[in-house]
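[User] At your convenience, examine this fold.
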Amino acid sequence: MDAFPNEPMGFRGILWGQRLESLTGRNFTKISDDGDVSAYRLDNDRLKMAHVEVDDIIYYFFRHRLYRVHVQIESHENFARLKEIFFESYGEGVSVSRDETETYYWAGAELDLSLEYNEASRGRIEYSFRPIHKQEEKKAKLKVMREWDEA
């Protein structure tokens, strides 16, 4: 699969797949833990992307390696500004509209990126590092299969 233009190799100076323990000088607060997947907020994180305000940024680690980032956007105005910036940086992506949700996808060599807005749930940006995401999905499927066998 071809990379989209300017495919990010990480997020805010953290490389995809980088181990949490190696991120010295940054303090993360754990907000959830589900076995191998833990979610964190970065203490004193700058809640802006390209000078556009965002409402939350959550960092997901699978077995202590960064593989997903979720950015929450409450304002449609800020979503529209970020959409414009993403189009300039990564191209227009693939547009998929469903149930009053405006969605754009970019599939890179190793990264999946989505930008979405719906009046009810507001906006979000999702970065997903495919090599680790596939490991996480495989582990989750095996868990479900084991639970099914045990039932």
Summary: The CA atoms of residues 3 and 108 lie 4 Å apart.
